[in-house]
User: What shape does this take?
Amino acid sequence: MREFLTGNQAVVRGAVRAGCNFFAGYPITPASSILSDMVSAFADGTGVAIQTEDEIAAIGQCIGAAMAGAKALTASSGPGLSLYSENIGLAQMGEVPLVIVNCQRMGPATGGATATGEGDVLFARHVTAGGYPLPVLAATDASSAYWLTYEAFNIAERLRTPVIVLLSKDISLTRQTADLNAIPLSPRADRLVASPTATYQPYKIAHSADTPLFLPIGGSRQVRFTGSIHDENAVLTADREKIARKLTHLRDKILSRSESLAYVEADCEADASALIISYGLADGASRDAVKELRANSIAVSHLTLYSLWPVPERAIAEALSSRIDRVLVPEYNIGLYADELRRVIRKVPVESIQRFDGGLISPQVIVDHITRFGSQKAQTKAVCTCPS
Amino acid sequence: MSILTAKRTDMCYCPGCSHGMVLEQLGEALDGIGVPPTGVCIVSDIGCIGTADRYFSCHTFHGLHGRSITYAEGIKRANPELLVIVLIGDGGCGIGTAHLVHAARRRADIKVIVCNNFNFGMTGGQHSPTTPLDTRTSTTPLGALDQPLDLCRTVAVSGAAHAARYDAFDPDIVTSIKHALSVPGFVLLDIWELCTAYFVPANKLNRSSLDAFSTQLGMPFGLIHEGTKPSKATSSGSARPVRRAPADAGDAPAISAIPWPHRREICTAGSAGQRVRSAVGIIGDIAVAGGLFAAQQDDFPITVRRGFSISNLIVSGEPILYTGLDSPDLVLILSSDGLNRFGPLSGLDASCLVVAAAELPIADAVAPVCAIDLKTLEKQAGKESVSLAALTYALVKAGFIVPALLQAAAGAVLSGAYRQSNLDAIAAGIAMADNHSPAACKSPQ
Assistant: This one.
């Protein structure tokens, strides 16, 4: 059945569907309705939802609850993500399954509380000290806000990592038509648990990219947790070998799974010379632009990125067929992700379409950009073929 | 075997530091109350006392500076059976003051033990929020000027169940700790200690100096407060639920498909209090139930009861990908707030229909304009529902929807307390569209 719901409502539904049973948050536009709807969702005692004194306490309570076995969610906007920063580092170091929804808004600081913007796409990746990776997903509409939130829990559980899901004001608060129950979902994944009979080593792994087996704080076996650099027993260590092993593991656990973490949708045409790569709010306009271009017999390829980090490099390479001589990236910031794509796409120019005044990028802007400004033929041909 | 697995002499603390002594007292108290190690979680954070978790055989959680209270509260909410103890320093109580106060307010069932040695021992003896007046630290070389924080009274007035202050040399402290751990609700023990690395040498202190501080600061030792019982908020959120969100969509009401022209963009611009967003949402709900696709995007100031309220609705037979409204097909202006926010009407195509409250000065439109008498509609539909009535009028006038189908669909879809008044409003809008004199609509020049 189709419903008429906001992206924030879809987040709540996705979280509940994934088995989320703990929420802590602090009110902030445009994320507040996630907090109030989670309070309502858990009114029947199926979970705990609490409004805390600030975002630091919100994520702190989520981390504590997650290590006691809960599936935890917190949601905020850019100013709140700033306050989450230190504890996202703790969740990385301590390997805490945790989903963080960031309903982005315009500009730095208070910015435009009720205006749209997607300027946190690099901040989400580099949100905490140390530089270690974490998965970042980006919703394009209410439907994808639903299934990405669900998948974020699966990723968080499987890899024991914080996962950030990005929305923006015009996805969070715009009501859209969606049939959530018809969206195919992968099986629900719970964290892998250790045998409670053995002596438990909280961070024991056989291979660098493995996820350590979980036992909850409060269970029948002693569990240690620490945000300091530690060995497999969660005891502080100064042993360089153990330090290197732990930190390499934090890198490998995420980056070795770049492909399985890559949620993308490719809509390519064999004779296209332009490839639009879109994510977030600009995706809807990109799809409309593609329709219009094709209606006017202009071949064009389109790649939607639902995963921003790790960068879905293989999917991007596959979409860059030999005929593609330009890549267009519409986004609601100063061209942040286009810059990242320039790192990945070296053989053809990456053109940035930007809007950051709170208004929307219309399909016509993208159409005009493609039709008015023909690009130089690329000097070097890409070798990958576009999947049909 | 004790829950404390290390001897004081094997701990990392400086000679004469009180931390090891307090850990022994805590271990003895925990052993004494007979709780198994797996029934306890010690949560620590940063500072010398933050290294203590390793000396205990219970569950341990070592987190970030001043945030131990937040982790402890999360752990306790997820596992209400667990005895959750926070070991924190006076520095942690400064950077985490908000958490300390609000956890007490929430009556979180956690036991906070503050190892208070009046300065930052781990980073070089800087002043902390409890540094006594006139004492020297590396950042108050001429003596501290700031009023020291009275931790016990702070949490006592904030909802704590138990707040007490002891010096680490108190011969009865183990009994006191045992009692404190057994009190339900938020408990704080402010245990005064000696930092032999910095604060003692900088101020030439000894054990009796703690008594002198107590007198000087008016912060007596012993039980300061015993009172507030824990609330239900211990294991569930403190916010009281008002309604239950649907876990999943229920069955669709029986409704036949609503015919609709291709994508139509409708802007409704009015004022706060006119229930603009709710009126547009009702039409969106009906459209979606009728097999159409809809998108609703609202624009309003952050103070929701004042100023403009604009709601954009797109309805289409096809999925709506781009949700922006660039060339409206129908513009409904309900107030001067709405008109001002919408801006000049001169940019609208001649194919757009403008419907505006009769009293508004609409001079610049190229598009045809219909003036509606909101006062009359208000009499028929009621003040609460005038926007829905006007929107219905506009949709019918624009020829987007067959009135009888709209009415039937509304009858099937609408529910809740406002069902009848909304149905009445839709009926009033349709009636007005039927009866409206053509002279009220002005075609383009």
